[in-house]
Amino acid sequence: MTKAGKLAFAFYVLSFTFGGNLHLYAQSQSTLEASYRRANAAYADGQYQQAIEKYEQIAASLPSGIVYYNLGNAYFRLGKRGKAILNYERAKRLIPRDKDTIFNLKVAKAQNIDQFDLVKPLSGFSLLYGALHPDEIAWFGLVPYWIAALSIVWLQFSQNRPLRRVLRYIAPVGCLAWLFSLLLVSLKVHELIVPYAIVTVDEIAVRSTPDSGAEAIALPLHEGTKIQIHEERRDWVKIYLPEENAGWLPADGIERI
Fold first, then answer.
1. What is the CATH number of domain 196-256?
2. Cα–Cα distance for residue pair 92/116, rounded to 1 Å
3. Taking the domains of the chain in order of start, what are their residue ranges?
4. What letters, b where the CB count within 10 A reaches 16 and e where it falls short, cover 153-169?
5. What are the beta bridge partners of residue 254?
6. Can you give the pLDDT of all 257 residues of the chain as single tens digits?
7. What is the DSSP code string of the chain?
8. Are the beta carbons of 223 and 86 closer than 8 angstroms?
9. Cβ neighbour number for residue 257 with a 10 Å cutoff
10. In whole angstroms, what is the distance from residue 61 CA to residue 83 CA?
11. In whole angstroms, what is the distance from residue 226 CA to residue 196 CA?
12. Which residues 6+ apart lie within 8 Å of 153 measured at CB?
């Protein structure tokens, strides 16, 4: 773990101390930081299972891209490629442009038996907003919003004609940029709630119906393959298949991102 990564994690934890009961947040921060140090120490000593347990506890209390990245590394060290890819994917959602996460995810997926993902193809536009953190999209929307709002207010009180002419252009442009940012926010939210999952068992059959005795309608999927869930029924999930087809997998063989 680099010093920059540790500082980023510390800042992430500290950001939760604003508002509410500062004393309780400070206690929680101290506990999480101590757990994070112990997890890093266990990882450095090669005690990967212990590190995994501690990282899992931290992630359950405070989802963090850095923690998921470290968790992926620990699982990869133990040869659990499916779990490693799962946590790299979780990290990528929170730190979408982190080079280490992207690289390690590619390395792990290169070892997959299935060199494909069963997810609907992304458009160029979705790749654009997919590379942005939700906070970045929020800031992208706040700036044009305030520019438009202040321009409109200023128009009501300013008597300066040249300035008013400029503001008449700035205000609608700011409004359009703000509306565009709202579109990005809605798409990003949709992206985050789309149920993707990773196969975490060695091999799993795709069935025609949610029944272990049903016909297998495709080649079996293997550990590390990313899938897109369409429906959940009891202990089964319906997944996306190419050419508008769908199949069923037992839910205990996958884990949601």
1. 2.30.30.40
2. 18
3. 3-110, 124-190, 196-256
4. ebeeeeeeeeeeeebee
5. 199
6. 554 454 445 444 444 434 444 444 455 677 888 899 999 999 999 999 999 999 999 999 888 999 999 999 999 999 999 999 999 999 998 888 899 999 999 999 999 999 999 987 765 555 555 666 667 777 777 788 888 888 888 888 878 888 888 888 888 888 888 788 777 777 766 666 778 999 999 999 999 999 999 999 888 999 999 999 989 998 999 998 887 688 999 999 999 99
7. --HHHHHHHHHHHHGGGSSS-HHHHHHHHHHHHHHHHHHHHHHHTT-HHHHHHHHHHHHHHS--HHHHHHHHHHHHHTT-HHHHHHHHHHHHHHSTT-HHHHHHHHHHHHT-SS-S-BSPPPPHHHHHHHTS-HHHHHHHHHHHHHHHHHHHHHHHH---HHHHHHHHHHHHHHHHHHHHHHHHHHHHHHHHHS-EEEE-SSEEPPBSSSSTTSPB-SPPEETT-EEEEEEEETTEEEEEETTTEEEEEEGGGEEE-
8. no
9. 20
10. 19
11. 7
12. none
Residues in the chain: 257
Give the separation between CA 163 and CA 220, rounded to whole angstroms: 67
Return all residues near 229 (Cβ < 8 A) that are at least 6 apart: 195, 196, 197, 237, 238, 239, 240, 256
User: At the topology level of CATH, where does 3-110 sit?
Assistant: 1.25.40
**C-alpha span between 157 and 58 (Å, rounded):** 52
Q: Which residue has the tokens 């989802």?
A: 63
